[in-house]
Amino acid sequence: MTDTTKGFAAMIAACCIWGLSPIFYKLLAHVPPAEVLAHRTLWSLAFFALVLGVQGRLRLILSAMAGPRAFGLLLLAALVIATNWYLFIWAVQSGQATEAALGYYIFPLVSVLLGRLVYGERLNRVQLFAVFLVTVAVSLLTYGLGTAPWLALALAASFGLYGLAKKRMAVGPVVSVTAEVLLLSPAALLVLWQTSNSGAGAFGASLQDSALLILAGPITATPLILFSYAARRLSMATAGLLSYLNPTLQFFCAVVLFQEPFTGWHVQAFALIWSALAFYSVTTFRQDKARRKAVRAASASATTVT
Fold it and tell me: What is the C-alpha separation between 1 and 247, in angstroms, rounded?
């Protein structure tokens, strides 16, 4: 297998785990989301620490937090990803997986908008039109349902802010996420201590619940490692296109497996968002192709001069 083929397979595997994860969290619907999040945090920390320990990179965790700026970015990233994780778990458990899928469909275009607002990145006409279509879709859904899709918007915004924080970090994704869950671990331990004292803790109550809560760590960590592996071997455009497999599988879980309501307003809104993503994906793919062509031309020119 070539590096590109390996990257493609890793990206597909990561998106399948992410996209089918609602099934996993649905099995824990009887466990409070805060308790699930606490276990997800601590078992993720154990899994990541094991991976970094095998790689001999544990020392990088402390160096990643050295300095007030680095620590501040990690703390911000930890808080927004914890918010994102909590909202996703709660959405699945409360029968709102469709809206969670909507949030992850919206996320790429929220990132584009944040890039424009924070970094001054210029948007071409197609990208602006895609953002406009998403705005129309959200407005249409708000009108039709009588309330804004706040959960979807919160998921998209929190993941977008997480991406902004990660963009400013000098360390890799595995090290940074390990540091993030390390920062979250005191709060996770406090939650579990409180649930244990009240006698309501799910861990230890049954073998199935205990196994599922432990499994939350690998389910969180494995796709991130696969994604990191794939990102180094695929173009941004290819990785971006494949990433839509995640919300598509979430959407399948919500509508087909969980049989959540899917009204005519949802049909219209999702159609607009899928159209927006199609426009956005085409222009991103063309930009990436032009960038790679320019790099090859520059490389060839430098070789000729030499």
Answer: 28
3-state secondary structure the chain: CCHHHHHHHHHHHHHHHHHHHHHHHHCCCCCCHHHHHHHHHHHHHHHHHHHHHHHCCCHHHHHHCCCHHHHHHHHHHHHHHHHHHHHHHHHHHCCCHHHHHHHHHHHHHHHHHHHHHHHCCCCCHHHHHHHHHHHHHHHHHHHHHCCCCHHHHHHHHHHHHHHHHHHCCCCCHHHHHHHHHHHHHHHHHHHHHHHHHCCCCCECCEHHHHHHHHHHHHHHHHHHHHHHHHHCCCCHHHHHHHCCHHHHHHHHHHHHHCCCCCCHHHHHHHHHHHHHHHHHHHHHHHHHHHHHHHHHHHHHHHHHHC
Distance from C-alpha of 40 to C-alpha of 133, rounded to nearest angstrom:
35
10-residue mean pLDDT profile of the chain (306 residues): values are 81 92 95 94 94 90 88 92 95 94 86 80 80 87 85 91 83 88 95 84 84 93 86 72 86 93 89 86 75 71 60
Residues in a beta bridge with 203: 206
Radius of gyration of the chain measured on its C-alpha atoms: 21
Q: What is the spatial distance between Cα 163 and Cα 231, in angstroms, rounded to a whole number?
A: 14
Residue 146: DSSP 8-state: S
Type of residue found at 76: L
